[in-house]
Amino acid sequence: MTYLDTAAQFYGEVAQTPQIGLCCVQSSPLQLPGLTIPLQMQEMNYGCGTTVHPAELVNNPTVLYVGVGGGLEALQFAYFSRRPGAVIAIDPVPEMREAAARNLEIAAQENSWFDPSFVEIRSGDAFKLPVNDDSVDVVAQNCLFNIFEPEDLSHALHEAYRVLKPGGRLQMSDPIATRPIPEHLQQDERLRAMCLSGALTYDDYVHRVISAGFGQVEIRTRRPYRLLDSQTYNLPEPLLLESLDSVSFKVIIPEDGACIFTGKTAIYAGSEEYFDDEVGHILQKGIPAAVCDKTAGKLAKLVPENIMITDSTWHYTGGGCC
Ligand SMILES: C[S@@+](CC[C@H](N)C(=O)[O-])C[C@H]1O[C@@H](n2cnc3c(N)ncnc32)[C@H](O)[C@@H]1O
User: Fold this and answer.
1) 267-283 burial, b if ≥16 CB within 10 A, otherwise e?
2) DSSP 142-173
């Protein structure tokens, strides 16, 4: 039996007997006008953040949702597309697919705008997505990829890249670790399945996303998720896990490296009206311009006395330049 079998068994169990608070953070699921989330779905909220970013869901996107869980985010995505098959939700665990289908039927009773045909539930897994190359606008996964061992994570990221249309978005939420998780915890298959011991550090995680081909990564949110205490987890000191919400774009990686936006800004404070670095970045005096980490680093070296670079806010929602 592999760790993936252990995970499938675990999710079979929690599909039949919901484990309230298994992965979720201390915030209620995203509420939207006219959306009622059935109680059964809320009890099966096994996501650690959110992958549903309303501002990006214009033009009725086709969404491939990987690891359907109780169907909560599939319902939230369907809210924006409202057409049959707009959301394709996959899961290898039959009990989970059945639970999601049941919950979506209840959602249809509680939401007059929703029809269960808006979400097509299919059997499938993250390593062999049951859709064609370049066929979907959004791939989303919440609290699933962190349970994969690093090489499997890379495999799943390449699969997501394959099925996205050019310019498409990979919207993810996963725990990350503030320092590498020791081997004895990584080897604990049950803890891994519970999203507590498979997390990579921020740098490792983002590196794997870029290595799969994504040319732009935007960090939407980074916040404390769980503390692994010394006694329970046999650690020399407590280990903080964070949850990271990100959106990665299937765009070509620039020659000088991918653009990673973490909320940094550059502000020109020199004697001119504006500063032009002559490679596409114009900074108006005194006005913060959102920049990616790569550009922030270059600008800081170029004229350190006249350009202030603000810290990562870990909350970036668009705009600015690479
Ligand atoms: C932590 S739960 C998250 C569920 C859902 N995303 C949510 O936010 O509530 C992980 C989900 O991934 C499914 N899963 C497990 N292994 C998978 C795989 N190899 N490929 C796709 N889904 C998988 C599980 O059955 C479960 O539904």
Assistant:
1) bbeeeeeebeeeeebeb
2) ES-GGGS-HHHHHHHHHHHHHHEEEEEEEEEE
- Show pLDDT as tens, one digit a residue, over the chain (322 residues): 999 999 999 999 999 998 887 876 667 788 999 999 999 999 999 999 999 999 889 999 999 999 999 999 999 999 999 999 999 999 999 999 999 999 999 999 999 999 999 999 999 999 999 999 999 999 999 999 999 999 999 999 999 999 999 999 999 999 999 999 999 999 999 999 999 999 999 999 999 999 999 999 999 999 999 999 999 999 999 999 999 999 999 999 999 999 999 999 999 999 999 999 998 899 999 999 999 999 999 999 988 789 999 999 999 987 766 6
* Most ligand 1 atoms within 8 A of CB, residue of 91, 121, 155 to mutate: 91
Query: Probe ligand 1: pick from 4, 10, 11, max atoms within 8 Å of CB?
Result: 11
Beta strand 216-228 with 239-249 is: antiparallel
Q: Are the CB atoms for 304 and 297 separated by under 8 Å?
A: no
Closest CA to 144 of 153, 154, 135, 136: 153
